[in-house]
UniProtKB/TrEMBL annotation:
Protein name per its UniProtKB record: DUF1343 domain-containing protein
PANTHER family: HYPOTHETICAL 460 KDA PROTEIN IN FEUA-SIGW INTERGENIC REGION [PRECURSOR], PEPTIDOGLYCAN BETA-N-ACETYLMURAMIDASE NAMZ
Domain Peptidoglycan beta-N-acetylmuramidase NamZ N-terminal: residue ranges: 25-224
Domain Peptidoglycan beta-N-acetylmuramidase NamZ C-terminal: 230-390
InterPro entries according to UniProt: NamZ, NamZ_C, NamZ_N
Superkingdom, taxonomy of origin: Bacteria
Transmembrane residue ranges: none
């Protein structure tokens, strides 16, 4: 199997003038590695001596040591390179003048997981906005979309529901790499910064991560494997209710359930189309932290059997609808705050729509809800087309 070569590898193999001559800041986390598992900050510091001047960390921190959402990280000094580490998930989410002192280019080398609510892409958008205002250069080192670049799924964000888990109207599963998203953000949504995308070689849109030949390093504490990424575009919505999404277990997002869940009734209530490409295996689990900590949850593990047929968003929306239908007294929406939003329901921010949440409450079949966003999804496919770098 021919291995994919990331944007990081391309940069190191042939550093352009902006990398050889300017001062660099690097936004990175544990998944920012080369094929030999060595971290990007070490590789860049060795290949470009004296160029690395700062590190930026996104949500969960530079070492992904902050376990849950809304746990901020602080600033510090990197013990390996000796440069400052500035948190962009703490007292600010934008790079400040102090952080940018002496920096010419912010290099972004982050592994995305192909889902709208995964906050790394929005931290990138803040960096790009700051670059447009302050005049520095942004270089995105591209990496694979681990769940592929062909399929898109879900509604776009309604007006008034933009947030840190969805700033621009893109679907839940967007089917783009982080480099392609940067190009889309910059032009379509009018950021207009000085942007360079360093592309990969060898990546094709139909690839899943296991086909790239690259090592999987968890990009956040609850994304331990490719299987978690496959279900994440749907299972992340459980963060907005009292169904456990499997945090506090060894298979986060693949497992879901609650002490009150009647697994037989839930399974019987799902639309057959929601189960396309997957099997729900009944199981039990006790989370060690998070929702239902220490309590036996009755639920399921999602086993994806056909990645081309599996629609994670559809499945998880249907799970929530069925849970409401069968357990109206026990089911509950999570209350604010959620990711810097203190008034709107977290589920509305995750879904990007109050109407979709109200449709689930009303028991509207998910196939009917899906039909309502097909026109905007088709339009998004047209909008994204000019920014796609890689062939099918």
């Amino acid at each position: 199997m021919q291995r994919v070569h990331t944007g990081l590898e391309q940069l190191l193999a042939s550093p352009p003038a902006w990398a050889r001559e300017g001062k660099l800041a690097l936004m990175a986390n544990p998944a920012s590695v080369g094929p030999d598992y060595r971290h990007a900050r070490t590789l860049i510091a060795e290949a470009l001596p004296g160029r690395l001047g700062a590190l930026f960390s996104p949500q969960h921190g530079l070492f992904a040591d902050k376990q849950d959402n809304m746990i901020e990280s602080g600033h510090g000094i990197d013990p390996v390179t000796g440069v400052p580490v500035w948190s962009l998930y703490g007292e600010t989410r934008w790079p400040t003048d102090e952080m940018m002192e002496g920096i010419d280019t912010v290099v972004v080398d982050i592994q995305d997981v192909g889902t709208r609510v995964y906050t790394f892409i929005w931290t990138l958008s803040y960096i790009m906005e700051a670059a447009a205002k302050k005049g520095f250069h942004v270089a995105v080192l591209d990496r694979p979309n681990p769940i592929g670049g062909m399929l898109v799924e879900g509604n776009l964000i309604d007006e008034g529901y933009a947030s840190f888990v969805g700033r621009y109207p893109i679907p839940m599963r967007h089917g783009m790499t982080i480099g392609e998203l940067a190009l889309l953000f910059n032009e379509r949504f009018g950021i207009g910064c000085d942007l360079t995308v360093v592309p990969m070689t060898g990546w094709q849109r139909a690839m899943h991560f296991s086909e790239t030949g690259l090592p999987w390093v968890l990009p956040s504490p609850n994304m331990p494997c490719e299987e978690a990424a496959l279900v994440y575009p749907g299972q992340v919505i459980l963060e907005g209710c009292n169904l456990s999404e499997g945090r506090g277990t060894t298979r986060p997002f693949e497992l879901f359930g609650a002490p009150y869940l009647d697994t037989g009734k839930l399974l019987d209530s799902l639309e057959p189309v929601s189960l396309a490409g997957c099997t729900l295996r009944e199981t039990g689990f006790e989370p060690t932290f998070g929702k239902w900590q220490g309590e036996l949850c009755r639920g399921f593990q999602i086993h994806v059997t056909d990645r081309d047929l599996f629609c994670p968003y559809r499945l998880s929306l249907d799970v929530v609808r069925a849970a409401i239908c069968n357990h109206s007294r026990d089911f509950a929406w999570k209350q604010p705050p959620y990711e810097y939003e203190y008034e709107k329901l977290p589920m509305d921010m995750i879904l990007g729509s109050i109407n979709l949440r109200e449709g689930l409450e009303a028991g509207t079949p998910v196939s009917e809800l899906e039909a309502g966003w097909q026109d905007e999804l088709a339009e998004f496919n047209k909008v994204r087309e000019p920014f796609l770098i890689y062939n099918p």
